């Protein structure tokens, strides 16, 4: 069955960087677009970024543009989110999510369990 | 940005009752509307896509309807496991997709 396992979350200071990873299994990773979606504790969902199946096309939300970069390594079945210049408002749970198809359809049929990022001085 | 408004924020029902959840878009999203269910401590689960199509493995008691700006998720007869938070999401304006703020379905 599909498994998505995020890692890399933790406590960081404002202005610093963090890289999240999402290891995928149970499906042909290179055939699907992948996303990052975040959710502040007790709050709603916010889409963060998408990457095409081959990694060539990427988009990020305006709220993280210029600071966050999405990437993938299909040889390792792993999705990444490089987060720079972190702000207090970036402190949320980050989920990786599998698109239903490629090219991306922008909805998600599998999600990881999430990794928590805390930004605090 | 397309804003999705889910109202009310909380609904209270008893098991066996019929529940209707609403999602309204600030502009037309055609039928590109998706519903998810989220239980405490869990990731969201895909229920409905393209406004009315049930995702794989979703029970028939869940149904979606609507187009344009007004959408509804109906649970025909609530089971105890259905009490959760429900989110709508539009994918019409990709890549700038947006979610509603969620409706909590609680046991009366």
Describe this structure in words.
The complex is a heterodimer of chains A (121) and B (108). Chain A is mainly beta and 121 residues long. Helix content of chain A is 0%, strand content 50%. Chain A has no helices and eleven strands. Chain A has strands at residues 3-7, 10-12, 18-25, 34-39, 45-51, 58-60, 68-73, 78-83, 93-99, 108-111, 115-119. The termini of chain A are far apart. The mean pLDDT of chain A is 96. Chain B is mainly β. Chain B is globular and about 35 Å long. In chain B, the strands form two sheets. In chain B, strands 2, 4, 5, 6, 9, 10 and 11 form a seven-stranded mixed beta sheet that branches.
Can you tell me the residue ranges of chain A where pLDDT is under 50 for at least 5 consecutive residues?
none
Helices and strands of chain B, in order, run as EEEEEEEEEEE
Q: Taking Cα atoms only, what radius of gyration of chain A do you get, to the nearest Å?
A: 13 Å
Mean pLDDT of chain A: 96
Quaternary arrangement of the chains shown?
heterodimer
The overall pLDDT of chain B, averaged over residues, is 96
Low-confidence stretches of chain B: none
Structural class of chain A: mainly beta
**What letter string, H or E per element, gives the SSE order of chain A?**
EEEEEEEEEEE
* Biggest sheet record of chain A: 7 strands, mixed
> What is the helical fraction of chain B, as a range of percent?
under 10%
Helix content of chain A: under 10%
Largest sheet of chain B: 7 strands, mixed
Number of helices of chain B: 0
Keyword list:
heterodimer, A: 121 residues, mainly beta, 50% strand, B: 108 residues, four-stranded antiparallel β-sheet, 11 strands, globular
Q: What is the topological layout?
A:
The complex is a heterodimer of chains A (121) and B (108).
Chain A: E1 3-7, E2 10-12, E3 18-25, E4 34-39, E5 45-51, E6 58-60, E7 68-73, E8 78-83, E9 93-99, E10 108-111, E11 115-119
Parallel strand pairs in A: 2-11
Antiparallel strand pairs in A: 1-3, 3-8, 4-5, 4-9, 5-6, 7-8, 9-10, 9-11
Chain B: E1 4-7, E2 10-13, E3 19-25, E4 33-38, E5 45-49, E6 53-54, E7 62-67, E8 70-75, E9 85-90, E10 98-99, E11 103-107
Parallel strand pairs in B: 2-11
Antiparallel strand pairs in B: 1-3, 3-8, 4-5, 4-9, 5-6, 7-8, 9-10, 9-11
């Amino acid at each position: 069955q599909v498994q998505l396992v995020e890692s890399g979350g933790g406590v960081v200071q404002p202005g610093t960087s963090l890289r999240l990873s999402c290891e995928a299994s149970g499906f042909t990773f290179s055939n699907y677009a992948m996303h990052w979606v975040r959710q502040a504790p007790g709050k709603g969902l916010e889409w963060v970024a998408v990457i095409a199946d081959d990694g060539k096309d990427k988009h990020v939300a305006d709220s993280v543009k210029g600071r966050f970069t999405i990437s993938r390594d299909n040889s390792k079945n792993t999705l990444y989110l490089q987060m720079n210049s972190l702000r207090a408002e970036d402190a949320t749970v980050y989920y990786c999510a599998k698109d239903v198809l490629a090219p991306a359809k922008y909805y998600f049929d599998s999600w990881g369990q999430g990794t928590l990022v805390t930004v605090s001085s | 940005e397309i804003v999705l408004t889910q109202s009310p924020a909380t609904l209270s029902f008893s098991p066996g009752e019929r529940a209707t959840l609403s999602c309204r878009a600030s502009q037309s999203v055609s039928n590109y509307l998706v519903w998810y269910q989220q239980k405490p401590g869990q990731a969201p689960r895909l229920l409905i896509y393209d406004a009315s199509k049930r995702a794989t493995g979703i029970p028939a008691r869940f149904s979606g309807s609507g187009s344009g700006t007004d959408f509804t998720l109906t649970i025909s007869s609530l089971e105890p496991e259905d009490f959760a938070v429900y989110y709508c999401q539009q994918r019409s304006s990709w890549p700038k997709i947006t979610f509603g703020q969620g409706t909590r379905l609680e046991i009366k």
